[in-house]
Amino acid sequence: MDCQALIFDFDGTILDTETPEYQCWQEIFSGHGFEMPLAYYSGFIGKANGGASPLDYLELQLGRPVERDSLRQRFRERIQEIIATQTVLPGVLDYLTTARRLGLRIGLASSSRSPYLLSHLERLGLLHFFDCVRGADSVKNAKPDPELYLAVLAEFGLQPDQAIALEDSPTGVRAARSAGLFCVAIPNTVTGQLSLDHASLRLNSLAELPLETLLSNLKEGHYAALES
Question: Is 11 a catalytic residue?
Fold first, then answer.
């Protein structure tokens, strides 16, 4: 494999927003005397907002409607408070700086909306690394559809076998693999409890395997058996 680009997911891959989100929903559920099972919440991880909501499950448990606007506002305030203290996940900065030094293109494919992505990348001092940022608002179909990855590849003028996807969730891995990319799964505290068997390679963190080693292994075909 002659890799020409890295394509990152954002939530849970660059910044661990998914563990705090689950924590915030659990706080809301706990206030009503219930818990939200991870098996249920996992259906929302890596997908664009809209459609079903954790509040659907809360109302089902309570047997009555809840004040959705008030609870959503409480969730937004709490999650912003927590995420503001989050730092880049281990190994991410090393991958970005190494990719830039090697002349690789760097893209972002996320089911979050572009303003959210650009704001956080700028806050974290990472925006200048990215040649292309694609959020859910830039495509018709977000993950697990492969459209986000295909959009970044089209922007770069590359084929799927010329790029590596970096993901943390089953939804994201399915999107990357459906687009034909080699996909490295780096689960966080929440997604680590979910099945990522369809990933090309699974790491505990990007700090576990330097990018240059990964690229060398790919070029030498070390992961060919995993792809078959």
Answer: yes
What does each C-alpha distance from 150 to 4, 162, 163 come to in angstroms? Answer: 15, 12, 11
Mean pLDDT for the stretch of residues 134-145:
95
Identify the domain containing residue 210 by its residue range.
5-16+88-227
Query: Are residue 192 and residue 156 in the same domain, yes or no?
Result: yes
Q: Is the pLDDT of residue 76 over 80?
A: yes
Catalytic annotation, pick one of 9, 16, 145, 168: 9
Q: Which of 11, 16, 145, 168 is catalytic?
A: 11
Query: Cβ–Cβ contacts within 10 Å for residue 157, how many?
Result: 10
State the Cα–Cα distance between residues 33 and 56, nearest whole angstrom.
15
Looking at residue 195, what is its pLDDT? 85
> How far is residue 166's CA from residue 100's CA, in Å, rounded to a whole number?
16
83, 111, 138 — which closes off a domain?
A: 83
**Do 70 and 106 fall within a single domain?**
no
- In the prediction, which pLDDT does 227 show? 62
Map residue 10 onto helix, strand or coil.
coil
161 catalytic, yes or no? Answer: no
In this structure, of 138-152, 153-167, 213-227, the range with the lowest mean pLDDT score is: 213-227
Domain edge (last residue) among 64, 83, 102 = 83
Looking at the fold, whether 170 and 133 belong to one and the same domain comes out as yes
* Residue 100 pLDDT exceeds 60: yes
Q: Are residues 70 and 172 in the same domain?
A: no
Counting the structural domains of the chain, the total is 2
